[in-house]
Amino acid sequence: MTPAVRLIVLILISLFALPSTGRAFAPAATLAGDAGGARRCRAADPPAGFDEVSSSAADSSNRSLRRISAADVLRSSPLALGNPFYPADIVAAELGVDAWALENLDLLSLDEILWRWDGLYGFFLFPAADDAPEIALAMGRAGLQRQRAALQAAMRLFGNPFPRDSQERSRRNAFMTSPAGIPSPFDIALRFQSQASGSLDAYDQELEEAIARDRCLSAAVAALRAMLRDHQRLLRLIDWLSRDIDVDASTPAYREAVLSLPLEFRTLYLASRPTMTHASGLQGMFAGGDGALAPEIAQALEDLRLAQQAAVIREGIAMFGPSFPISTVERRELFFASAGISPLDRNLLDLSARIDRGAIVDAMVLRARADGVLPR
């Protein structure tokens, strides 16, 4: 069979073959069928704590700075859903919500979906794909029919029964291209099906809408939302601000994007920069795009009454001489172009130890509370 014929066969199989449902992920009473499984809450009788979500809220952008989206509530992981030592029924009883809803949210919010969803192609490389049949059922119950259809079609490419083990999936069909750089027929077929699953942003939006349509799921998300701490809410806010700002853009573009933020958001964004996980601490900050805002970062820390932290940043600025180069290109060419670790690199690395990330985050939370900008 030629590669072209094999590719056509694989695509046809993915379109028409029936997937295997494999082993049971949860009790049959909970995950029985696509009609909804076993629920305790009913559409006419929402459980206590139900957070009514209007259609306008469901249609609004998930990046609202005032309201945390359902997907971001799940990303914040207020509970370790799926923990075998803390079953969903026990968690549900403590929260006063439906165990059915928690189990479905657990399947819909796996890290490999909420953080690494790239059109299904990479999903099957992770162990979470061992439960792909159950994830497809959960997607169907939540009304995520497009993602469900794409997932089931991709599963069919692996044959029947669907391999539950990630190593077995890798052995059965090669994910990678050939040594010559030519994609295998299976690789092409999987990418073909992956296009139908959509982007991570689309999944976020459709998950939000699906949860808004289902009172059981809405009640569970409302309970999880209420458990979020202010530090988690702050992290979501900084994440939202960062999504539309390109730190790797040109110096003028990056500075304009940050400095054009409203004051309450600008102060928080600037203060967050020394707390970011730069691989080499302040050396990474000054060598990267954030170095172009070093004077403003110091001022933001000063505004948060963190004089000692501001002094650390200004001490780093002084290491570059009497005229600090705002241009990232110039800064790199003059101070970070040499191979190996320079004395400046060592000094900045040593200076990093004096950054108190905990104190900065605490001060940011206090300011965000005072300004009323923590998302809910």
UniProtKB/TrEMBL annotation:
Residues 1-26 form the signal peptide. This is DUF4375 domain-containing protein. Keywords: Signal. The lineage of its organism: Bacteria, Pseudomonadati, Pseudomonadota, Alphaproteobacteria, Hyphomicrobiales.
